[in-house]
Automatic annotation (TrEMBL):
This is histidine kinase. The modification Phosphohistidine is found at residues 773, 891. Residues 330-552 form the Histidine kinase domain. Residues 586-700 form the Response regulatory domain. Keywords: ATP-binding, Cell inner membrane, Cell membrane, Kinase, Membrane, Nucleotide-binding, Phosphoprotein, Transferase, Transmembrane, Transmembrane helix, Two-component regulatory system. The keyword Transmembrane helix applies. It comes from Denitromonas halophila. Its EC number is 2.7.13.3.
């Protein structure tokens, strides 16, 4: 039983006994007053006092007077039971209370606690005794023992000491560090564990916590000791209150079993919720219940997080997989449909099943439209996958939303005319003249939305409204395309933005389309920081809205409808373009596909050009070296020798003939590759006939019917007073990518024209020379060759301080400037909805400004030769990363080229020098490419290929 008592009780009992022993010792030493002895002494004193009185009375002979005294004593003292006087002979002569019968002692006996006798003297004679009978000092029997004051004292002190010590120890022990009992070495071993370790006693009070656990709670381990486990920040899995009764350690303490792999949660001091895997082992001390529990805690928060992430990733992968499967299923369906038509009708034609020519033409039209559809589908899918993969790069450059919308309407307005629909462009309030966006993408979105609106409308029309929405900051440009067409059912309005979704399954049959346009438009708009949304009422019409971020509008003019209408130029009709090509031009077509050669030969043959064909690079190299051509059209992927190698070989052999790459590779970066190989320009396959004609015309010196070979420059620049009032498109307008550059140029040009006029009025000839020089170079660079001649003339006149001539040329330039429209007039070719396809950077023949002087021809010739020697040195210096050498060569080029009139080199040489000095490898590469391309196009003075505008008379 004692063993079952706790340590605290043991100590308390021991201490209580100790106190009792001390009290008893004090009692024995007489340090504690004795009540019984005091009572006895009192009784003796009383007896003696009565005895003295009796002796006195006897001496006076008044013994009888003693009787009332005795009665008084008995009456007054409850302790005194009886009193009597007895003679020597044993006769009681007087008594008070029941005495004689109760008296037990003989005369010779000693007095006891209850019977006391005192001798009575008369003089010296002993004549009798006084007898007093008392109650016992302590009660008789067990009660007497129990009421013994010693027993009471000892009992009281023992019990109260026991209690006091027990509680006192309870308090004190709690504050004593039991972990001090754990040896230091063991402690530091426990502290090195990354797992948290906690020992609780039976009452779930912490008796030990290692460092890992303490660190987690953010409290020192010593603070945790003595704390009840319920005060620790446990939570349930969602951060709510934790049911402590269900705690695994409570179970372990209760059933004495080991509980493993339970999960508990705790909030860290920073508020984050952590998950622990815990194991609870009871500490068995031999008794029925465990004495405590050992808990190990493993923080598995990150593992849990990872598994959640993993789960999410798996879900995403699953849904991506499903989407891919759906996509493939859709794709194969989409491709099969037009394929069926192509193969079916081809077969019909092959077998000669068509009844007549008209029948055959219809079949061919179906085949052609199926092919076109297929191509559109492939382009859309390429676009979609690029945006989906985040590889679609969107630009944020100056672009003119009104001009863009206007161009799109111009381009596809013909469809409205065909269906007799109204197609309007309106501006609500004032909108910025330019915004920061991606013009090519915006054009694509607009083409799709306006195209859809026209497609799904039979009566009424389509209105495109531009407005500046300033409700939010930053402001947004809103373009609404509203139609009065068939509309879309309410539950389909959102779905039409999903790939391959068409609002109505009959749509495809009735209207065609891939169901990808809106998906692409929305994704593009979102990539540009905007969105495309739709509202629609079936049977009444739909409104598709584009919201676009505008970028900073600081310094941008806000124009109204009238001002914007005035700003857009009337443009030539693409569809009706006819080309005039020089009949004597010789062209080599290099392609391994006979059909492709045939197609090109047929198209160009129509124009009377002389065509030669080669079926691989090797044959082309041989032919090009044997004969002179004005242009080589080179396929890039061919057996035996590919186009890259052939071009490089020809360039290395010193051939300067323009080479236009034909490539089916629509992947990013191929442009640089073909240009680096030495090509002058490139066209993508399948070859768009308009793009092909534009490029060939550009290189061999052709022009579009209705325009003049001198690129719309006034026929005779000597007669500026009779100007041609038609709009002047940029030669690079075919290249969507160039539009922003052209746009920027136009803005800058307008400013510079004011400066030119001001300088001319002020007769500030040096400024005039500078400005004219800039215009001469910059205008040509962005394809406005019309500026080149008059600007050069102005420069000359200004140098000569000739005010009259200057004024004449300034007027001419003003006239040209007024006919230049905002970025990229309606492109000469709009081959596809998506880029790229139009000719890339076409570098025309590079000529010297000084070639008008025949005496300088040999100098120019020598420089060209020198340049062909210097180019490999420049390239070698770059390859060796010898930037000092590179900077030196660039510096030479900058000076020398300008001296002999090859101003085209000035900018790239200056830039190359700067890039070399800065050690900027990629910039160096860029400018070297440019210089290389210019070098290859350097044309000796007096040579015949000339596509630049005619010179002044
Ligand atoms: P496509 O026109 O090639 O089928 P889109 O993604 O451009 O693909 O359009 C998806 C569908 O949305 C169309 O098939 C048509 O059902 C619906 N839709 C788009 N624009 C309009 C519109 N202006 N009016 C009615 N329905 C439209």
């Amino acid at each position: 039983m004692i063993r079952k008592l706790g340590a605290k009780a043991h100590i308390a009992i021991g201490l209580a006994f100790l106190v009792i022993s001390i009290v008893l010792a004090a009692g024995f030493l007489g340090l504690i007053p004795d009540r019984e002895a005091a009572v006895r002494d009192g009784r003796i004193a009383l007896a003696e006092a009565i005895a003295v009185t009796a002796a006195e009375m006897t001496a006076r002979g008044q013994v009888d007077w003693l009787a009332p005294t005795l009665r008084l004593v008995v009456k007054r003292n409850p302790d005194v039971l009886s009193a009597a006087l007895r003679t020597e002979e044993g006769t009681i002569i007087m008594q008070a209370g029941p005495h004689a019968a109760n008296w037990t002692l003989n005369n010779a006996d000693m007095s006891t606690d209850t019977e006391l006798h005192v001798p009575l003297l008369s003089g010296k004679e002993h004549w009798g005794q006084l007898e007093l009978r008392f109650r016992p000092v302590t009660p008789e029997g067990l009660a007497g023992w129990l009421f013994n004051p010693w027993v009471k004292l000892v009992g009281f002190i023992f019990l109260s000491a026991l209690l006091v010590f027990y509680f006192y120890l309870g308090k004190v022990l709690r504050h004593l560090d039991p972990s001090g009992a754990v040896p230091d070495r063991v402690r530091s071993a426990l502290d090195t564990l990354t797992e948290g370790l906690l020992v609780l006693d039976r009452r779930q009070t912490v008796v030990l916590a290692n460092r890992a656990f303490a660190e987690f709670t953010g409290q020192p381990a010593t603070e945790l000791i003595g704390m009840n486990a319920k005060k620790l920040p446990w939570t349930d899995s969602k951060g709510g209150d934790f049911n402590l009764k269900a705690a695994p350690w409570a179970h372990a303490l209760h059933d004495g079993e080991v509980h493993t792999n339970n999960t508990v949660h705790m909030r860290a001091p920073d508020g984050s919720l952590h998950t622990f895997q815990i194991n609870c082992a009871p500490i068995l001390t031999g008794g029925r219940q465990p004495g405590g529990v050992l808990i190990s805690l493993d923080d598995i928060t990150s593992i849990e997080q990872n598994s959640i992430e993993l789960e999410k990733a798996k879900d995403a992968a699953d849904s991506a997989n499903r989407a891919k499967s759906d996509f493939l299923a859709n794709m194969s369906h989409e491709i099969r449909t037009p394929m069926n038509a192509i193969l079916g009708f081809t077969e019909i034609l092959r077998r000669g099943y068509s009844r007549d020519g008209a029948d055959a033409a219809r079949h061919l039209a179906t085949i052609h439209s199926s092919g076109t559809h297929l191509l559109a589908l492939i382009n859309d899918i390429l676009d979609l996958s690029k945006v989906e993969a985040g590889r679609m790069e969107v630009e944020a450059i100056d672009c003119q939303p009104y001009a863009l919308a206007h161009q799109v309407i111009q381009a596809i307005g013909v469809r409205a005319k065909e269906k007799n629909l109204q197609l309007d462009l309106v501006v609500d309030g004032r909108i910025p003249e330019t915004i920061q966006s991606d013009p090519a993408r915006l054009r694509q979105i607009l083409t799709n939305l306006i195209g859809n609106a026209l497609k799904f409308t039979e009566h009424g029309g389509v209105t495109v409204t531009l407005a500046l929405d300033t409700r939010n900051d930053p402001a947004a440009l809103r373009i609404d395309v509203h139609d009065t067409g068939i509309g879309i059912a309410q539950n389909k309005v959102d779905q039409v933005f999903d790939p391959f979704v068409q609002a109505d399954s009959s749509v495809n049959r009735r209207f065609g389309g891939t169901g990808l346009g809106l998906a692409i438009s929305r994704r593009l708009a979102r990539a540009m920081g905007g969105d495309v949304t739709a509202t629609s009422v079936p049977g009444e019409g739909s409104t598709f809205s584009i919201a676009l971020t505008t970028g900073s509008l600081e310094g941008v003019r806000l124009l109204d409808d009238a001002a914007l209408q005035a700003s857009v130029a009337v443009s030539a009709d693409v569809e009706t373009a006819r080309w005039i090509l020089p009949k004597n031009a010789r062209i080599l077509v290099v392609d391994d596909g006979a059909e492709n050669r045939e197609l090109v030969a047929t198209v160009l043959g129509e124009f009377g050009l002389t065509l030669d064909e080669a079926e691989n690079g090797q044959i082309a190299v041989d032919m090009a070296q044997a004969k002179t051509y004005d242009l080589i059209l080179m396929d890039m992927q061919m057996p035996v020798m590919d186009g890259y190698t052939a071009t490089r070989t020809l360039r290395e052999a010193g051939l300067t003939t323009p080479i236009v790459a034909l490539t089916a590779n629509a992947m990013q970066g191929y442009e640089q590759e073909v240009i680096a190989a030495g090509c002058t320009a490139y066209l993508t396959k399948p070859v768009d006939i308009d793009a092909l004609l534009a490029t060939v015309a550009h290189i061999v010196g052709g022009y579009r019917e209705g325009t003049n070979p001198t690129s719309s420059v006034t026929k005779n620049v000597g007669e500026p007073s009779v100007p041609d009032r038609s709009a002047i498109p940029s030669r690079l307008a075919t290249k969507t990518r160039m539009h922003p550059v052209i746009g920027k140029f136009v803005l800058r040009m307008r400013e510079q024209m004011h400066a030119i006029e001001a300088a001319q009025r002020a007769h500030d000839f040096s400024t005039l020379v500078e400005l004219a020089h800039w215009l001469k170079g910059a205008g040509g660079t962005v394809g406005f060759d019309a500026f080149t001649e008059p600007a050069a003339e102005l420069e000359t006149a200004a140098r000569a301080n000739d005010a009259a001539q200057s004024a004449l040329w300034v007027d001419t330039l003003r006239d040209i400037a007024d006919r230049i429209a905002a970025p990229g007039d309606t492109p000469i070719v709009t081959p596809r909805k998506t880029k790229p396809c139009a000719p890339a950077k076409v570098i025309g023949p590079v000529r010297s400004r000084l070639e008008a002087n025949p005496r300088l021809h040999s100098v120019i010739g020598k420089f060209i030769q020198r340049m062909h020697e210097q180019l490999p040195r420049i390239e070698a210096a770059h390859r060796a990363a010898d930037f000092t050498e590179l900077a030196g060569l660039a510096h030479w080029l900058k000076g020398a080229a300008g001296t002999v009139g090859f101003d085209d080199f000035t900018e790239p040489a200056t830039e190359l020098e700067a890039a070399a000095k800065a050690g900027n490898n990629s910039d160096c590469q860029r400018w070297i490419n440019r210089i290389g391309a210019l070098t290859r196009q350097m044309t000796p003075a007096g040579s015949t290929i000339d596509i630049t505008p005619s010179r002044a008379p």
